[in-house]
Structures are given as C-alpha cells and as structure tokens.
Amino acid sequence: MFDYTVVHARQSVGYKHLIKAAQSLRCSNVNTSALRLFQFELAHNRRKRMMKKMSEKQERVVVRGLRDVAAAETKISYVNSNGTLYYLGYDIDDLVERVCYEEVAHLLLYNKLPNAKELDEFRSRLVSEMKLPQRVIKRIRVAPKNCHPMEVLRSEVSHLSEYDPHPNDHSDAANKRRAIELVAKVPTIVATLHRTRTDQQLVAPNQEYGFAENFLYLFKGKTADHQEKEAIDRFMTLHADHGFNASTFAARVTASTNSDIYSAITSAVGTLKGPLHGGACEKVMLMLDDINTEEEVEEYIQGMLDDQKKIMGFGHRVYKAEDPRTKHLRSIAENLCHRTATLNLYKTCMKIENVVHDKKKIFPNVDFYAAVVLNALGVPKEFFTPFFASSRTLGWTTHVIEQYQDAVLLRPSSEYIGEFGRSFVPIERR
Ligand code: CMC
Question: What is the pLDDT of residue 7?
C-alpha cells in the first residue's frame, strides 16, 4: 500500500496525493523509517512550493538612495535643483542680510515673520532659554576629551529629555515649547563643551545681545564685533533648514513613530555627523590644511580624483546648479579673510572651486565656504559640524512638529534579494 501510494503521488507530483498518502500511513502499521522518508518528501515539496511562490513575488522598483523620492509633503522649505531655496515661501536671497536668525526662527516655528514687539519678546525668550540644567553642564565637563564634539552633543541632546517638566504632554503647544528650548540649548551645549575642554570659564548669555551673537559670545567668551555678529547671524540663517536632507529625514522618521522630539533631534545629530552630510565641513578644513599654496591645488585635486576620492564640500544630491547658499557664504568668507589676513586661504578656495568645476562640472555646496567662515571666526574645525547642528536644530524641530501633524508612520519597504528555503541544520551538526 505504501509503495503504491508513494508511486502514485510521485507520478502525479500532486501535493494533495502526498498529504493523503501521509495520512493513510499514519493510520496503518507501516514502519517508522518509511514514514520519515515520506515526511521528508512532504517537507521538501512544501519548500519547493514556497520558493516558487517567493520567486514569483511582486518585484518592486528600488530607488537607490531614495533619489528624487518625495517621502512626505512639507510647507517648511523648498529646495529647487535650479539653485533656489525658500523658507516658508520666502526666497533666502530676500532674507539673508535683511533678517536676523531670530526672525527666521519665528518664521519657521510660527509661519510668520515677527513684528518688532514680537521679535523682542521672542529674542528675550530664546536667550533666557539658553541656560542649561546644572547636571547637563556637569556631564559635559566629564565627557572624555577624545570624544568628537558631535558625540557629546548627541548624548547631551538626549539627556535634555530628562529635564522636561511635562514629558507626557504631547500637545502642539508643549512641542513648540520643547522646540524653542532645543533651539536655544543646543548652541549652549556646544559652547559649554568648547569652554570646558579649553579650561575656560563659562559665560552667561547676555539679554542685550542677539541670539546668534550670544552663541559666539558663549563660545569665545568675548563680545563679537559688528562683522563677526553679522557673519554668525548669516551663517545660522543659511543653515536653518534645507528640505528633506538626511538628518531632517532621520528626525522625521523617528517622530513618525510618535517618539518624543528629543529622540528625533538625537537621531538628526547622529545623522548630520557623517562626512557625506554635515561632517563634510570639518573635512573641507582638513583638505585646506593639506594644501599649502594656490599652486598646489591642481595636482592635489587631480590626485584625489585619480584615487576616486570625493572632494569634500562639493556636489549635491538636489542642486544641479550652484547651491544658493554658496554665494552668500563666499562673500562672508572673503570679507572675514580680508580682516584676518588669510586672503591666501580664500584665493586657494577660489582656485579649488575652478579646478573642481573644470574637471567634474560640480559646484561647491554649503559646507565649502562655511568651513572658511567658521575658521575665520576662530572656531576650531572639530566644532564646525556642531555649529551646523546648532543652526539646523531650528529646521529639525519644525519638521518634527510637521511630522506629528501628518501622523503617518514613515516605513518604506525593501526588495529582498537574499536566499529562500535554506535547510536548517541543528547546532550539533553545523
Ligand atoms: N567629488 C568628486 N566627485 C563628485 C563629488 C565630489 N564631492 N560629488 C559628486 N561627484 C561626482 C560623482 O562621483 C558622480 O560622478 P560619476 O557620474 O562620474 O560617477 C557624480 O558627481 C554624481 O554624484 P553622486 O555621487 O551621484 O551624487 P549623490 O547625490 O549621490 O551625492 C553627495 C551627493 C553630497 C553625497 C556627494 O556630492 C558627495 O559625497 N560630496 C562630498 C561630501 C559633501 O560635501 N557633503 C555635503 C553635502 S551638502 C550639505 C550637507 O548635506 O551637509
């Protein structure tokens, strides 16, 4: 009976027949090895069927790097490949040089440029929120000196959540309050880290100063002059937001799970740190340190390209023309280099720009001249990306609030290209 059923099942290659045969075997007195053989055959067939099914699974189009994929709608900023950038509908070319960073912060958080009274009140609130909890300062003091400032910043942003007075309030108003606190406190974490690492006294924020000016004051311990004030204000304005860049996207993904805003900004800080994103700024300075004179530029760049290396501070995922922030930062860099007698550095940058464009037809991005600006302001290069983070916290928090309002989980799929049907081998037989 066994032989007949197996032969019949095999001949018809019918799954139903195999099941029937197995059932009848269980009822009869056929020996156990025959039963095992039959069960093996069943399992094998089941695996074959599954593999067939899997290979017939619907093929998805994989968009590598999510290039040009619109993952959500946003009203916050618009990055156009033709080289324009808008904050809440305002062309940044119309804002830079005409508004201060606090006005941009008010615009992003409240969708409105403030009038004089609102600006005064908002500035005062931001400046008073720059104060850090004592225990955060203590932790910054004991952070190992070999840690990159972005690592300490990432941890301390996360620690801030421990001091939220109403962690269970998920209202829009509570998130706006948290956003303002984060925008104000992130620069203070950065400044405190620098002051403690260099064994310098901490200074308290000054209500007489603007917000960006206060940041530089807390960092350097001395009042910024007019040109420095202007430079840091414009730097922060130009870095305030930039569409669905990688760190903003990371923040929105975290927020889309309904996690808290501190977690979202912690994700963003970690993402900005990478050299393909905000970490490029520090790498630009390392490259500029390597190039001694204008005459060395051509050979240096050719060497990098021959070695298939990326030139830091060049290229962009979206812009196919010049990054609209570059012209502003180039001009700030030129002015600052004039006064700090580092005009040779500026000339070297111009030469790099020309050589890279000739060879690769790509333009400098925001990080290239930002490095020169921060260097001229006396900021050590390992703090370049933390300065970027201090400005971008505004964009991140605004996006997080928008994501909460959108209330959809950001969860893409993937195209599985691995194996199916691997036979499990118990540990004693591996
Ligand atoms: N140096 C040399 N070649 C470059 C560079 C560069 N910096 N950027 C792009 N290219 C080339 C790239 O090799 C490719 O050439 P080909 O078609 O011959 O293979 C072509 O330009 C297109 O580049 P891509 O790699 O497809 O561009 P992407 O959109 O994947 O990458 C990028 C964008 C920003 C990661 C890249 O340009 C890069 O690595 N730049 C250097 C790091 C940097 O400056 N990052 C800051 C980005 S902007 C501000 C920010 O987000 O913080």
Answer: 44
Q: How far is the CA of 315 from the centre of ligand 1 (A)?
A: 4
- 368-395 per-position pLDDT tens digit: 999 999 999 999 999 999 999 999 999 9
Tell me the pLDDT tens digit for each residue of 324-361: 999 999 999 999 999 888 899 999 999 999 999 999 99
Q: Say whether both 255 and 121 belong to one domain.
A: yes
Provide mean pLDDT across the span 24-32: 55
Residue 6: give the domain boundaries: 2-58
Structural domains of the chain, count: 2
Question: pLDDT tens across 252-285, in order?
Answer: 999 999 999 999 999 999 999 999 999 999 999 9
Question: Mean pLDDT across the stretch 153-160?
Answer: 98
Q: Does the residue 412 lie in any domain?
A: no
Of 199-208, 259-268, 307-316, 339-348, the least confident: 339-348
- How high is the mean pLDDT of the chain? 92
Note whether 49 and 73 are same-domain residues. Answer: no
C-alpha distances out from residue 422 to 41, 45, 49, Å: 16, 14, 13
Specify whether 399 is catalytic: no
CA neighbor of 407 nearest in space, from 253, 187, 258: 258
Rounded Cα distance between 109 and 106, Å, is: 5
Residues 140 and 28 in one domain: no
Assign 392 to helix, strand or coil.
helix
From the candidates 316, 323, 328, 399, give the one annotated as an active-site residue. Answer: 316
Among residues 35, 58, 81, the one where a domain terminates is 58
Cα R_g (the chain), whole angstroms: 29
- Closest C-alpha to ligand 1, atom 32: 316
- The pLDDT confidence band at residue 423, using thresholds 50, 70 and 90, is very high
User: Can you tell me the distance from the alpha carbon of 370 to that of 356, in angstroms, rounded to the nearest whole number?
Assistant: 17
Do the domain assignments include residue 390?
yes
Whether 47 and 188 map to the same domain: the answer is no
> Are both 47 and 107 inside the same structural domain?
no
Nearest CA to ligand 1 atom 37: 315
Annotated catalytic residue 241 = no
Answer for the pair 381, 375: CB distance below 8 angstroms, yes or no. yes
Read off the amino acid at residue 149: P
- CATH code, 331: 1.10.580.10
Pocket around ligand 1 at a 6 A CB cut-off: 65, 245, 276-278, 280, 310-317, 360, 362, 365-367
Looking at the fold, whether 139 and 27 belong to one and the same domain comes out as: no
Residue 90 in tokens:
């305002």
